[in-house]
């Protein structure tokens, strides 16, 4: 069996919610080996992601949450990859706002495990940025894919519809900061960090309120 790899593509586009639109760069994560992989959040540029995957079999498309910058290209990418789309049920209303005629192929539940290249990627329901936000833990590699729940420097935004600051703090405090401090955190936008680098700042985030 070939070694597990984590590949990374940065794609650019827009994010729209509550009547506003912003330019964003998104991190797309590809976990697998030479023959198969999982793709997390195939944003904005399906063809670039398809090229990065190459000839590998895509076992699944995992969406960390339902905001349109993370999902708008998922349907088109799924056609290229011929792979099912997974999204936590609590964010299907966000999906429906973008794709009113279709549903995701499958739900993600807390504790679900996705097997790829001999490794197990575990779903952790981390609501707050959105009700159905999910982080994915790859314990064998000491790696967490946090979506927009935890970034370098603090929690994801909670100032818009369907988001809640106390909820995201509770998710981070009880479900993410309890992971080993050396755990590498690969985020939905921007630079990666570690649990150990972020953990000491929890009280600062609570005090500032975002």
Record keyword descriptors for this entry.
210 residues; alpha/beta; Metallo-beta-lactamase, Chain A; six-stranded mixed β-sheet; 14 strands; 7 helices; globular
Explain this structure.
Strand 9 and strand 10 (143-147) form a beta hairpin. This protein has seven helices and 14 strands. Helix 1 packs parallel to helix 3 (74-81). The protein is 24% helix and 36% strand. The radius of gyration is 16 Å and the shape is globular. It is α/β, with parallel strands linked by helices. The chain has one domain (5-208): Ribonuclease Z/Hydroxyacylglutathione hydrolase-like (Metallo-beta-lactamase, Chain A). The model has no long low-confidence stretch (mean pLDDT 97). The strands form three sheets. The chain has a six-stranded mixed beta sheet with strand order 1-2-3-4-5-6. A six-stranded mixed beta sheet has the order 7-8-9-10-13-14. The longest helix is centred in the C-terminal third of the chain and has 12 residues, at 165-176. It has helices at residues 46-53, 68-71, 74-81, 92-98, 165-176, 195-198, 202-208; strands at residues 5-17, 20-32, 36-40, 57-62, 85-88, 106-108, 113-116, 119-125, 134-138, 143-147, 150-151, 154-155, 184-187, 193-194.
